[in-house]
Design brief:
With 224 residues, this protein is an alpha/beta fold. The protein has a single domain, classed as Aldolase class I (TIM Barrel, Alpha-Beta Barrel), CATH 3.20.20. The protein contains eight helices and eight strands; from the N terminus they run βαβαβαβαββαβαβαα. Helix 3 (73-82) packs parallel to helix 4 (98-107) and helix 6 (184-190) runs parallel beside helix 8. The longest helix is centred in the C-terminal third of the chain and has 15 residues, at 207-221. It is globular. The N and C termini lie close together (11 Å). 46% of the residues are buried. The structure holds ribulose-5-phosphate. The site of ribulose-5-phosphate has 22 residues, from strand 2, strand 8 and helix 7.
Length: 224
C-alpha cells in the first residue's frame, strides 16, 4: 500500500479570536487552517461567516479548510469556495441536495467534502464518494472544542476507507474532535489521513513543535 499523505489541519476555534492573523502565522508549518463556521442553528454555537473567511484567506500562510456547521449549506457553501477557501465541508444532515452542493463547491474552485455527525451512519451516503474529495468523520458532537475523543467512531472511518478502496477513489478521510498525541494513532490505523486538532495545537506552549509531534506520531502509527 502506498504511504498515505498525512495532513495536519489545526482548528482556529481554539485560537485567540482577537488576533487571528497572528494565530494563523503560528500554524505556518501545518497543511491547512481549519475554520469552523457555526450558525447557532445547526449547532448551539456561533462563530464567523463568509466575510471573515475572505479576510482569513488574505492573510493565511496555509490554505483554508472550511467546516460548515450550518443549516442550508446548499445555499451557502459555494460562497465559501468563492471566498477563497480551498476545501469546503458541509454536513449531510443539513443538505437537501448533497450532490448539487458538492458539485457547486467544486465548480467554484474548492475541494468538496461532506461531514457526518457521530450519530449519522456513513453507508446511506456511500454513493456520494463519487462527488467529493474528502469525508469528515466527526469524533465529537459538533459545536465546541476541547471535548473528549469518541473512539467508537473508528469503525466508521474504517467503513469509509473500505468503501473508497472498493470504488477505487483516493478520497481523503478527515477526523475532527479530540484529536491529540494520545488519539491520532488510532485514527491513522483506522484509515484517516487529515487530522483536525484545536486544543491539542493551540493549547501547546510551542504550537509549531506540537504540529511536528502530531505529524511524527501519525507517521509512526502508519509505519512511515
Ligand atoms: O469542529 C469542531 C467542533 O465542532 C472543532 O474543529 C473541534 O472540536 C476541534 O477542537 P478540539 O481539537 O479541541 O476537539
Amino acid at each position: 500500500m502506498a504511504t498515505p499523505h498525512l495532513q495536519i489541519s489545526p482548528s482556529i476555534l481554539s485560537a485567540d479570536f482577537a488576533n487571528l492573523e497572528r494565530e494563523l502565522g503560528r500554524i505556518a508549518d501545518a497543511d491547512w487552517a481549519h475554520v469552523d463556521v457555526m450558525d447557532n442553528h445547526f449547532v448551539p454555537n456561533l462563530t464567523l461567516g463568509q466575510p471573515v473567511v475572505e479576510a482569513l484567506v488574505r492573510v493565511s500562510p496555509v490554505p483554508i479548510d472550511c467546516h460548515l456547521m450550518i443549516e442550508d449549506p446548499d445555499r451557502w457553501a459555494p460562497g465559501y469556495a468563492e471566498a477563497g477557501a480551498r476545501s469546503v465541508t458541509f454536513h449531510v444532515e443539513a443538505a437537501a441536495d448533497p450532490v448539487a452542493t458538492a458539485r457547486a463547491i467544486r465548480a467554484a474552485g474548492a475541494r468538496a467534502a461532506f461531514a457526518v455527525k457521530p450519530g449519522t451512519p456513513f453507508e446511506p451516503y456511500e454513493e456520494l464518494l463519487a462527488e467529493v474529495d474528502m469525508v469528515l468523520v466527526m469524533t465529537v458532537e459538533p459545536g465546541f472544542g476541547g471535548q473528549s475523543f469518541m473512539a467508537d467512531q473508528m469503525p466508521k472511518v474504517r467503513a469509509v476507507r473500505e468503501a473508497a478502496k472498493r470504488r477505487g477513489t483516493d478520497v481523503w478521510i478527515q477526523v475532527d474532535g479530540g484529536v491529540s498525541l494520545d488519539t491520532i494513532g488510532q485514527c491513522v490505523e483506522a484509515g484517516a489521513d487529515v487530522f483536525v486538532a484545536g486544543s491539542a495545537v493551540y493549547g501547546a506552549d510551542d504550537v509549531a513543535a506540537r504540529i511536528a509531534e502530531l505529524r511524527a506520531t501519525a507517521h509512526a502509527a502508519c509505519g512511515a
